[in-house]
Amino acid sequence: MKKRIVVKVGSNVLTMKEGKLNITRMSALVDQIAWLRWHNYEVILVSSGAVACGRKELQVDHMLDSVEQRQLFSAMGQVKLINLYYDLFREYGLHIGQVLTTKENFSTERTFQNQRACMEVMLENGVIPVVNENDTVSIEELMFTDNDELSGLIAQMMNAQTLVLLSNVDGIYTGNPSDPNSEVIRTIKPGEDLSRYIQSEKSSAGRGGMASKYKTASAVASSGIKVIIANGNRPNILIDLAERPNETIHTEWTSDL
What we know:
Helix content: 25-40%
Radius of gyration: 18 Å
CATH topology: Carbamate kinase
Oligomer: single chain
Number of helices: 8
Structural class: alpha/beta
Mean pLDDT: 86
Number of strands: 8
CATH class: Alpha Beta
C-alpha cells in the first residue's frame, strides 16, 4: 500500500540570503522526492517561492502596496517556479501538475470536494501535485496565514499519513537555536504545550515562522497525522526521515489516534 506524504518547503529553504532562488537546493529536494516516489510514496509538494522568484525578475520604479506586490511578483514568479520544477522532475521521468488555491476553496463543500477530486486523480495517475496559494487573486482577509497553514489543510483534506514541514532549523528548540546550549525537542506528545519555547521571529523571505509551524503541527497531529518539522538545508533530509528516523534530528508529533 502506498504511503501518502505532504512535503511543505518554504521560501527560507528555497532562497539564498540575497533573495535569489537556490536552484541547487531545489534540485536536491526534487532528487529526494523522486526517491520517495520510487519507494512507494505518494507525494504532494506544497512549495513557496513564487513571490521571491518574481521579485528578482522585475524592478518596479513606483510604489506598490503589499497586495499589489504579491499579485505582481507571484504572477511572474509562479511561471518561473513551476517551469523549474517541471524541468527538474522531467529528468526523472516524473510528471507534475500545478494546483493554485485560495482559502475560499476550503470554505464550502463543493469547492472542497472539487479540489480534493482534482488532486486524487492526479495521484492516481502518477502526477505529483505542486501546490501554492494563488496570490494573484488573494487579498489580505482571504489569504492563508502562510503555506504552513495551507499544507496542514491539504494533509487533512487528502488523508495523508505524514506532513513534513521543512524549515531552516532542525525543529523546535529548548531555547534560541543559535544558543549552543539549546537542544532540539525530538518528540511532542498529544496535548503537550510547548508555546513557551516558540520564537516569534520570521525569516526575511517567508510569512510564517516557527510559531506558525507549531500551530499547524499541533492542529494536524490532533487529527491523527504524523507531523515532522525538519531542516530542509540538510542533505537528504527526506530520505533520512524515511529510512533512519531515529538517527535524524527533527521534531515529531506523536498521536494516540
